[in-house]
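Continuing the series of single-chain predictions for the mutant panel. This is the parent chain; the variants come on the following pages.
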Amino acid sequence: MKVFELSYPDNMTIDNDEEYSLAIGFFDGLHKGHQTVITKAIEKAKELSIRSAVMTFNPHPSHVLGGGKNKIGYITPFEEKKRLLENMGVDAVFVVKFDMQLASLKPNEFVDLFIKSLGVKHVTAGFDYSFGSKGAGKMEDMKKLSDGVYETTIVGKVTDNADKISSTRIRKLLSEGNVEDASLLLGRNFRLIGTVVGGEKKGRQLGFPTANVLPSEGSILPENGVYAVRFIVDGTSMNGVCNVGVKPTFNNPEVKSPMVEVHILDYDGDLYGKEVAVEWVKHIRQEKKFESIDSLISQIEKDKEMAIEILAVS
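Parent structure:
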């Protein structure tokens, strides 16, 4: 899969003369709704005997339009998004830098620069996709502005239990610790990518050694708590129990941001420096402060047994 990075007005050309069926959107999460849009673009590419492509943007438009005040946690940071797109069979990805210069383009200017000039012969997007200054361009306008250069497909609302599947909805579920329903909307387990780093070794002292995972920049985390997870390293998936939080029992004032600690079941090895993935399967309990270390150890043992039961049938 080829990746092209574009920015207006300095970097607007690509080094090939392919023709494309393009799916366009931000696509954070690549949830079932996004998958419908992209799959239709891939099908159209096959029908027209051209290449399939996805256009996405970086950073999130709301971050730029909010003057940098809106801090957006990504369900799928770009490397994870790229992996998923490649698995779907997408031939090329156009990553467009989103800044105020891009946001100020009129709808027709955006179409001329980012659709017609890239060899796009078909555009697929969701019914609510907008483009151009203040989102003035809608998908009906995309068709009107084509001048016969490309065709369009508008994908209707994709729902679950009558509600629209959206990245906003998934973020809310994750913020509530509801990884099960979030995964249903994603069409796969919610996954976090990160690197194993050194920690305080509290888990090892308690008899439950953990891998401390530093999430990739911009990643969103589920609500603080304990979860049954799968831990993937070097292509191998292992079962585990994960704590996300600040470890209130130890009352360390230096620990202010949530930490991701995974106790891998039936494993003992050196993982420091490894890039890993954590897939959340089910929420077990909220994070809490324990009155004693013994009561914490007892609860961790119960969490471990519950994780074993959950993962045996998931």
